[in-house]
Specification:
Layout: H1 21-32, E1 36-41, E2 46-49, H2 51-57, H3 61-64, H4 75-91, E3 101-106, E4 112-124, E5 127-136, H5 138-194, H6 200-228, E6 235-236, H7 239-253, E7 260-265, E8 273-274, H8 276-294, E9 301-309, E10 312-319, H9 347-357, E11 361-364, E12 374-380
Parallel strand pairs: 7-9
Antiparallel strand pairs: 1-2, 1-5, 3-4, 4-5, 6-8, 9-10, 10-12, 11-12
Bound molecules: adenosine-5'-triphosphate and magnesium ion.
Adenosine-5'-triphosphate binds near residues 293, 321 and 345.
Length: about 375
């Protein structure tokens, strides 16, 4: 670049150019340029500071004209800058002139930010002058950051949906060999126990192996339900009969001391249309969790209350157990978060996804003062058009 004819050093206090027509034209370019333009002499004194520079650095031209340019640099760079310029003047070795690179600028308020700087040189009757063109990189960085965030999010989402698909595919593929394995082992077990000299140790190992295979199959079945997210097949539910049936199911399966189950169903509930199989699974899991929780308690009470609330039907399952420790709450509804030896830790995760698939939700009520845990299953009331 040759700026030799522009006599840029002749300027008035406001930092704009004057004199001839070409200079007037140059002055208007200077002040309307979107990039910052700064001119300094070989002693690093600021000779011109355009409007864009004022916007970028927060200074008025008048604050800087005649002073050292290092005011708009971070301290470490400012300390070395005079030296850099002297080095260039002595050796002619170019580090930035005609090259351009990213440097840090310093705003009047002290904040530092990236700027792209290219520097040209002009020789004038007053000596050498340097013209810096600066572009604030902050807006571009912000856009880049937002773009990077959006990309990361996209990758994450793709990974999750790939996992979903993979989970469903794996569950599907594993299901058949596992079922076959279980059938073979059941046959083997039957044959072995029918033998005259049946070996009890052998039978015991076989029974354990069968138990583990069944457990694996159970995990696969439930994983499938979890990832497949079947659309609910809604039917009108007879709530009192349904609630009694759920309690009956859990009561039957209770292995230890049976808790005292208390059922309260409000009168005049609005109709509920839901997938009975899925909702039964949710309630059975909640009641079973409650029953597990009260096992070691002196009083073993599990209550199920059904009531209407603002267009929803609430199934409230409460127990006299120790409650859910605060530290477990954030992970409670995540898969495989359970703390039981026997449980898979899938119950609440599946239950919540079933509730949400119905347009409802499943939450732990943390506002209660009573000890024990209270879970609320909320389902939208009314008749749905499928
Ligand atoms: N009523 C409750 N009181 C105290 N803790 C509970 C209660 N319900 C659930 N929890 C805690 O939350 C964990 C997760 O429950 P979740 O039903 O998801 O899994 P799980 O019962 O361990 O296994 P499964 O998959 O067989 O249901 C439990 O292991 C238990 O620690
Ligand atoms: Mg459970």
């Amino acid at each position: 670049m040759d700026h030799g004819d522009a006599s840029i050093n002749e300027m008035n206090a406001s930092g704009s150019l004057s004199s001839t027509v070409s200079e007037a034209r140059l002055a208007s370019v200077f002040d309307t340029a979107a990039d910052g333009i700064i001119v300094m002499n070989d002693r690093c004194q600021v000779l011109a500071f355009n409007k864009a520079s004022e916007r970028i650095f927060g200074y008025d031209a008048a604050d800087l004209l005649g002073g050292n340019i290092d005011k708009i640099m971070p301290a470490d760079y400012a300390a070395a800058h005079d030296g850099y310029v002297r080095h260039y003047l002595d050796t002619g070795e170019k580090k930035i002139i005609g090259i351009g690179r990213e440097v840090r600028g310093r705003h009047k308020d002290g904040t530092e930010f990236p700027v792209e700087l290219s520097v040209g040189e002009a020789s004038t009757p007053e000596g050498r002058q340097f013209i810096g063109i600066l572009r604030d990189l902050r807006p571009r960085r912000n856009v880049e950051e937002r773009l990077a965030q959006a990309q990361a999010q996209l990758v994450h989402m793709t990974r999750i949906s790939a996992l979903d698909e993979m989970g469903a595919a794996i569950a599907h593929e594993l299901n058949q060999p596992l079922t076959a394995l279980i059938l073979y082992m059941q046959a083997l077990s039957r044959k072995a126990s029918a033998l005259e000299e049946a070996n009890p140790q052998f039978l015991d190992i076989l029974a354990k192996a069968l138990g583990e295979a069944e457990r694996a199959s159970d995990i696969i079945q439930r994983m499938r339900q979890f990832v497949e997210r079947k659309e609910p097949e809604r039917e009108l539910i007879d709530i009192p009969a349904f609630a009694t049936e759920c309690i009956g199911l859990v009561n039957m399966a209770d292995a230890g001391d049976r808790p005292d189950y208390q059922l309260t169903v409000s009168d005049n509930l609005p109709p509920l249309e839901a997938d009975a199989v899925q909702i039964r699974q949710v309630l059975v899991n909640l009641l079973r969790n409650a029953s597990d929780a009260v096992q070691k308690q002196p009083t073993k009470i599990v209550s199920l209350k059904v009531q209407a609330d603002k267009g929803s039907i609430e199934f409230i399952v409460q127990d006299s157990g120790p409650g859910v420790p605060d530290s477990s709450i954030p992970e409670l509804f995540k898969a495989f978060s359970g703390r039981k030896k026997k449980g898979l830790g899938l119950g609440l995760a599946i239950s919540r996804s079933i509730a949400q698939n119905h347009g409802g939700d499943l939450v732990l009520d943390t506002n209660r003062t009573e000890s024990g845990a209270t879970f609320i299953l909320r389902l939208p009331a009314g008749v749905h058009q499928n």
